[in-house]
Amino acid sequence: MSGTSLDGVDIAIVDYGQPIPEPVYCNTKPYPAQIQQRLRDVIRAEKVAIDELSKLDVEVARFYAEVVNAALSSNSISPQSVAAIGCHGQTICHNPDIDPIYTLQIGDPNTLSTRTGITTVADFRRRDMALGGQGAPLAPAFHQTRFHSNRHNRVIINIGGIANITYLPANQHEAVTGFDTGPGNTLLDYWINRQQGLKQDSNGDWAAAGQVITALLDTMLTNEPYFQRSTPKSTGTEYFSPAWLKAFSPENFTAIDVQATLLELTARTIALGIKQLPDVATECYVCGGGVHNGYLMQRLYQLLGDCQVSSTAELAVDPDFVEAQAFAWLARETLNHRPGNLPSVTHASAPAVLGGVFQIPPGTSE
């Protein structure tokens, strides 16, 4: 899994031979600097050269293959013992709100399967979109399997570049719902990088030292229609981008206060999304990179009142690798010809087996 934060690739090797799926190994490999920058440039560009996009498609897949092969080698696991790689790919664009709707993830699965010698399942989102769905979020089906409680209404909050939530009602006859709430870390990371040359605001310390600019926050919340839209809805960093932020003239304010305001925007829009759910949630569990932002977690705790806010680590799932495990699970569902989407989340017209399967004939791996 490589998400909208563009920080690197998460890998999870999951053993499904246990009553509860057991992660054998989890790790993150940062993107090489030149690939990371080129991905960022492509995502933010209004127009992209087809040769650059095609090169990146293969180069990202080669990097994925390096990550997979190194993980298997370090754990003495043979490629032949792995049923499949579930590969999300790197999202370049995602637009479910125009006609035709579209999404694009790169990381050529032909290259990945050939360089690892492992059947690869990829391109998970477009089948759901072909059925009229948003194509996102897809993790809720895994969340339902792994995190459902018969006693508590739960919300799983994933804070990557974009933030999304999954509502898991205790009553299994009620529908699971979920959607993207808006920016997660993307604007926070961009602003601190622009102002201080840092990749991220560690623990949210810089934001915590600033003051929220109330007028700026109110303008963002009021002028951006996405925050008030009803479900289904999903978005991406190509929408909540530097250009989106620039429209609010942040350079007219003190930089540290803009950081504080952007963190408050993330926290407020997550809380707003949770308050729009069909019923009251009593437990919220956070995963993704945002779980390490102590000040953001503090603000969520304060904004969500009586809802318990903690990490998915409390449910014995490492918060950094929930999504990587989700795509292992989705690959397993595909190989077993079972649907991986939830129409109650994406509003697709039907459940669907997701993705394409790129099999390895004997003797074809490099």
Q: Strand count, sense and closure of the main sheet?
A: 5 strands, mixed
Helix and strand content put the structural class at alpha/beta
Tally the beta strands: 12
Oligomer: single chain
Strands in their spatial order, largest beta sheet:
9-8-7-10-11
The CATH homologous superfamily of the largest domain is termed ATPase, nucleotide binding domain
Tally of structural domains = 2
Contiguous low-pLDDT stretches (5 residues minimum) are none
Helix content: 25-40%
Beta content: 15-25%
Annotated CATH architecture of the largest domain: 2-Layer Sandwich
CATH class wording of the largest domain:
Alpha Beta
Number of helices: 13
Which topology of the largest domain does CATH recognise? Answer: Nucleotidyltransferase, domain 5
Shape: globular
Overall pLDDT score: 96
